[in-house]
UniProtKB/TrEMBL annotation:
Organism in which the protein naturally occurs: Candidatus Blackburnbacteria bacterium RIFCSPLOWO2_01_FULL_40_20
Functional note: Plays an essential role in type IV pili and type II pseudopili formation by proteolytically removing the leader sequence from substrate proteins and subsequently monomethylating the alpha-amino group of the newly exposed N-terminal phenylalanine.
A biological process from GO: methylation
Family recorded in the similarity comment: Belongs to the peptidase A24 family.
TM ranges: 6-26, 72-92, 112-132, 139-155, 161-180, 192-225, 237-261
Subcellular location as annotated: Cell inner membrane; Cell membrane
Enzyme Commission number, as recorded: 2.1.1.-, 3.4.23.43
Keywords assigned by UniProt, alphabetized: Cell inner membrane, Cell membrane, Hydrolase, Membrane, Methyltransferase, Multifunctional enzyme, Protease, Transferase, Transmembrane, Transmembrane helix
Lineage, highest ranks first: Bacteria, Candidatus Blackburniibacteriota
Protein name: Prepilin leader peptidase/N-methyltransferase
Alphabetical list of PANTHER family matching this protein: PREPILIN LEADER PEPTIDASE_N-METHYLTRANSFERASE-RELATED, TYPE 4 PREPILIN-LIKE PROTEINS LEADER PEPTIDE-PROCESSING ENZYME
Keyword Methyltransferase in annotation: yes
Molecular function GO labels: aspartic-type endopeptidase activity; methyltransferase activity
GO cellular component terms given for this protein: plasma membrane
Length: 263
């Protein structure tokens, strides 16, 4: 088991390195093909300089050419991705949530790798929205295809009901978007709400919505308190939607159960 977790952590670091490249190039309209270069001196980066985390440590966090400091963004994304892989694998083995049970029944041994793929999309969108406050349509479209594949593997009544749930949440988010005159959230959040709610289904969307708006409000007030944000100034809402969806996947049933017991 320890060997499995070690290999998963290495895989997570490699995927994280790939995500740093995608999240840097895609919002800037750059090609995802070709070797990476230092953003400061524009020298082409060697293969060994792309070794996740380890090269950052060995180089003292500096570029091997210009000796300028390498942004902490790169090792942080790699480490966070590895942690999400490890935590997902651990929770997958422990969790008895309805969604995990359903995915195991539908996909068998491919259920966890499929969830890793979903997590990769969540992390990529979170990074881009956090840095640029956009949710690229190309990535949302691919996430939609992934969600559709899961739904098509589900029993027919589940597909129709989940699509109805997704459309209902989409209308709810669209109303917020229009009533706040685009200040409450971006249209990318509205489109993503359909994808995530269709994936989670009912009643999990209730927990997801609660966690999303609660975490968004708490972080927003905290940023205002430390003067990193102000009232009327928008902060990206996508990361809260995505992280809350990931949490709901594993703990939605548990949280709902607690609520029903104590209310």
């Amino acid at each position: 088991m320890l060997i499995l977790y070690f290999l998963l952590s290495l895989l997570g670091l490699v995927v994280g390195s790939f995500l740093t490249m995608l999240s840097y190039r895609l919002p800037r309209g750059l090609s995802i093909l070709g070797r990476s270069v230092c953003p400061l001196c524009h020298k082409q980066i060697s293969w060994y300089q792309n070794i996740p985390v380890f090269y950052f440590i060995l180089s003292g966090g500096k570029c091997g050419f210009c000796k300028e400091a390498i942004s902490l963004r790169y090792p942080l994304v790699e480490i966070i991705t590895a942690l999400f892989f490890l935590i997902s694998a651990y929770l997958w083995g422990l969790s008895g949530s309805n969604l995990v049970v359903v995915w195991n029944a539908l996909l068998g041994n491919m259920s966890l790798p499929f969830f890793f793929l979903l997590t990769i999309f969540f992390l990529l969108l979170t990074i881009i929205d956090f840095e640029f406050q956009i949710l690229p349509d190309k990535i949302l479209f691919l996430l939609m295809l992934l969600t559709t594949l899961v739904l098509l593997l589900s029993p027919s009544p589940t597909v129709l009901f989940n699509l109805f749930v997704g459309f209902s949440v989409f209308i709810f988010f669209l109303a917020i978007y229009l009533l706040t005159q685009k200040r409450g959230m971006g249209f990318g959040d509205v489109k993503m709400s359909f994808i995530l709610s269709s994936l989670l289904g009912f009643p999990n969307i209730l927990i997801w919505l609660f966690l999303s708006f609660l975490s968004g409000a708490v972080v927003g007030l905290f940023l205002i308190a430390i003067k990193k944000a102000s009232f009327g100034k928008s902060i990206p809402f996508g990361p809260f939607l995505l992280i809350s969806a990931w949490i709901t996947f594993f703990f939605g049933d548990m949280i709902l159960g607690w609520y029903l017991v104590y209310n």
